Amino acid sequence: MELNYSPGLDGIIAAETKLSFLDTVGSQIVIRGFDLIELSQRYSYLDIVYLLLHGEIPITEQRNDLQDKLKSNYQVPLEIFQIFKLLPNGTHAMDGLRTGISVLAGYDQQMNDRSTEKNLGRAYRLLGSMPNIVANSYRVLNGQDVVEPDSKLSYSANFYYMITGRKPTSLEEEIFDQSLVLYSEHEMPNSTFTARVIASTQSDLYGALTGAVASLKGNLHGGANEAVMYMLLEAKTVEGFETLLKNKLQNKEKIMGFGHRVYMKKMDPRAQIMKEALYKLCLEQGDDRLYHMCEAGEKVMVQEKGLYPNLDYYAAPVYYMLGLPIEIYTPIFFGSRTIGLCAHVIEQHDNNRLFRPRVHYIGERHNLEELSV
Ligand SMILES: CC(=O)SCCNC(=O)CCNC(=O)[C@H](O)C(C)(C)COP(=O)(O)OP(=O)(O)OC[C@H]1O[C@@H](n2cnc3c(N)ncnc32)[C@H](O)[C@@H]1OP(=O)(O)O
Ligand SMILES: O=C([O-])CC(=O)C(=O)O
Q1: Alpha-carbon distance 46 to 156, whole Å?
Q2: Residue among 185, 226, 232, 254 to mutate when testing ligand 1 (max atoms within 8 A of CB)
Q3: What is the mean pLDDT of the chain?
Q4: Residue 1 has what pLDDT?
Q5: Is the separation of the CB atoms in 231 and 320 below 8 Å?
Q6: Which UniProt keywords apply (predicted)?
Q7: What string of DSSP letters covers 114-174?
Q8: Which of 92, 186, 260, 344 does the annotation list as catalytic?
């Protein structure tokens, strides 16, 4: 058997899936056969959750039933909050989130059952608990009081409310929900690969998602949205941002929010939707500084490097204008991606083969007899 090596597994097909596919020729992010960009303009996050789990866009009753299932899982074991309180000062919000998901495993009474039915139950549980874990791990780590979920609100409005302590306006709710749709699923990024690799040993959904949090935390993946916002704040003005980007490029630094393994030298189509959302928020708030800074940054990167924004570049200022704390941008990305990850783990468990690649050995070979003892 001839073994090929591609650094970073670039261009390697790692799995068969019915969930999603980045069609770079047709310029579509295919989710269960539909284009994610079109979905993001007509459907809400819960519709996408249903679509990913069940393969079809829900009718009203199915959507309501899903909503009820998630609401019945809004509460988490109170011990989780006590554990958050024991974490050292300065613990990253993603590490708090990773701990919370990991703790949930211990409350699953049928841990050894990997059937689709049980995994679906776990997915509802994780999706229902996610706003609570994301918001309250951050809150406890920042010395704030735990906030209770509000079942009267929609899934996304409750998520927003639990983070900020404020109910969103209808525009805020719409844009926040749209960001969750855009982040929900994206084929085989590092975190999804991580989750599938873990699941392939017949390990459980909680463990797979715990590993995926660690993967998504990195700056080259989900951590980029926070890094983008810190750059924008440091730069303060259009001119400041242009200079900052040029200096970073001169120092051969990578610019967060630009480039993508699959889109390479094209704009991530999801970024365009968030750019439009940013414009709407700027108009509503009568402050277009961030929009102009981001546009200027985009021009610099195209001119200097031929690189285009990915979703994180425009999600960051959108979250800022939505009044969300920066440390929680990556946990929100994970909260949204929970559905994609659950669907991938279920698919992996349903048709499993252990991931076990080989290496290209570049070390030395020795003969023990050559050693003079
Ligand atoms: C929603 C998401 O998770 S999207 C990803 C979010 N991550 C980021 O925004 C981090 C910044 N971007 C990057 O680091 C990269 O573009 C990645 C990690 C997303 C993709 O990486 P890869 O496919 O491995 O591309 P790689 O890092 O090899 O880059 C190829 C070339 O483009 C350059 N390049 C790629 N991205 C950037 C960037 N953001 N800034 C500057 N140069 C870049 C590299 O330096 C390299 O140049 P070279 O060939 O002259 O050495
Ligand atoms: O696809 C990737 O490699 C990263 C990404 O954009 C995502 O996970 O949404």
Answers
A1: 9
A2: 254
A3: 97
A4: 59
A5: no
A6: Transferase
A7: --HHHHHHHHHHHHHHHHHHHHHHHHHHTTPPP----TTS-HHHHHHHHHHSSPPPHHHHH
A8: 260
* CA-closest residue to ligand 2 atom 5: 189
- pLDDT computed for residue 371 by the predictor: 84
278 domain-assigned: no
Contact 38, 362 (CB under 8 A): no
10 assigned to active site: no
pLDDT at site 274? 98
**Residue 309 near ligand 1, beta carbon < 6 Å:** no
CATH number of the domain that residue 47 is part of = 1.10.580.10
Total structural domains in the chain? Answer: 1
Residue 25 within a domain: yes
The answer, yes or no, to whether any atom of ligand 1 lies below 6 A from the CB of 254, is yes
Q: Express each pLDDT in 206-219 by its tens digit.
A: 999 999 999 999 99
Residue 159: band (very low, low, confident or very high) from pLDDT cuts 50, 70, 90: very high
Instruction: Write the CB contacts of 5 (distance below 8 Å, at least 6 apart in sequence).
Output: 360
Is the predicted pLDDT of residue 191 greater than 90, yes or no? Answer: yes
| Any domain includes 312 | no
Range of the domain at 97: 20-167+191-218+337-350
End-to-end CA distance of the chain: give it in Å, rounded.
39
pLDDT band at 373 (very low <50, low <70, confident <90, very high): low
88 within domain boundaries: yes
Q: How far is residue 364 CA from its own chain's centroid? A: 40
